[in-house]
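Late entry, evening session. Most of the bench is empty. Finally got around to the prediction I had been postponing all week. Sequence below, unchanged from the version circulated by S.P.
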Amino acid sequence: MSTIAEVRVDKIKHQGWDATRVSNGTVELVVTSSIGPRIMRYGFVGGQNFFWEDPAGLGKSGEKDWQMRGGHRVWAAPEDRVYTYPPDNSPIVVRVEGGVVIATQPVEKETGLQKELVIRLAPQGSEVEVINRLYNKSAFPLEFSVWALTMMTPGGTAFSGFPPRGTHQENLQPTNPLVMWAYTDFSDARWTFTKKYFALRMDPQRSDPQKVGLFNRRTWGAYLLKNELFVKQTSADPAKTYPDFGCSFETFTNNLFLEIETLGPLARVPAGAVAEHAERWSLHKNVAIPKIDDATLDRVLAPLVKP
């Protein structure tokens, strides 16, 4: 057990795995050490888990192939069968430094990458800084983007926003990409678009996937689950190149979960160097979005997405 200010860190068992719990009495996060690195729980103490956990894989480890598992993970983008899907099914090292939890995977033999999550919980409130790191432990430079994927539990709705809107007279040039995949279908009723925002509803009865990506200097995504809201946000640099036709944000859903994803810029990472991508998370109680329109989302979401 370790403490700093009001943050407490304990070794626990979670869903059959060895794990580390970090809490400030208001919220808690659970990081597995039997597999990963994965953050498998984030929620108010005693409350619902915002993160999906795959019932078929709970407590298991040692599989030869990559497993969905659930929770939050870090990957290398763009998506690739070799570099994206090495299994994370073996034990990792979790250490605590001054109340900060650092979860480090062994070097992947398939890619030469080493994945690491750094979790820094505020002493009060719900805010968390999560630093997603990819070390290049290979013998040569690699080009990739750090890709942070959070798998949300079923039954909620995801939201994100577009960059500031303007007028034809003032903005003759495009301001951001809106990126589709081959299976994206905007006629699907799970999508709702307004001028400033879009929403994607997670429907456990719909197995056909949906995905979209965009670029926003103030990249953020939110997930409303019952009357509580999860928010993750980061900053993107318009002077840099991003994967997937320029995406700093992506969201995906099927009948099992919904993912809220942010991406760092593409970078050529020398051998022995590290690339990292920081996100800020927060949770909010008593949130209601009775109608998906600009006025309602301005009132409810805008105050929670801080610069």
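Two things to note before I forget:
The mean pLDDT is 96.
Residues 294-300 form the longest helix (7 residues).
Will write this up properly tomorrow.
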